Amino acid sequence: AMMDNRFATALVIACVLSLISTIYMAASIGTDFWYEYHTLSPAENVSEAGRSIWEEFVSKDADEKTYTDALFRCNGTVGLWRRCITVPKNSHWYSPPETDMTTNCISFSLSDQFVEKYIEPGNHNSGTDLNRTYLWRLQFLLPFVSIGLMCFGALIGLCACACRSLYPAIATGVLHFLAGLCTLGLVGCYVAGIELLHRKLPLPEDVKGEFGWSFCLACVSAPLQFMAAALFIWAARTNRKEFTLLKAYRVA
Q1: Stated pTM of the model
Q2: Which domains does the chain have, with CATH numbers?
Q3: Which residues lie below 8 Å from residue 188, measured CB to CB, with a gap of 6+?
């Protein structure tokens, strides 16, 4: 009974870690704070050309350079699915600069996620930048693969409970390990993509950029997935060993 308790505890902790990492992962995919730009003088910037910046930012033809410039100038935030800027509520020429600010977001369409990135952002004649193109596509696909693997692992875990067997827990552990690798890959791709973009489009002097809390959630999710994987595999393997020893003892 003592042994059973130990395995049960390990499995419960693994399930809790798995659940928390899934919630973190889903939250990070669904929020827009992967990268944030802080403009030191946003209000003046926007009241100069407010409406046109906004119209360019939301237009279907907005290329990477257009929307990145708007992000720089208007306290932009970027997620995996959306980009947001903060603009005055009413950009009339007669309104004072310190008007109410409002945050407006626009989603990346599915075709935006797979569109080619150019060697010079915004210049279609400069050729395709393969590194940035594939990094962007991977950062879009990997989080879904990661969540898919964990959900599949959870299904196998439920079957294991129904069969009252610990053997499938090894498969659940391996799937969680692969999900952790995908999450690590996602974080790596995102950092590399941002670095490469800022080499092409350097930040203006009065703009500061930093990774946001959505990015941090993904960073925390990866080690949780690895810890859950380790616990699942440990419980299943140690239990199998003890079961074999018990059988040998009985036969003897």
Answers
A1: 0.87
A2: 1-113+121-243 (1.20.140.150)
A3: none
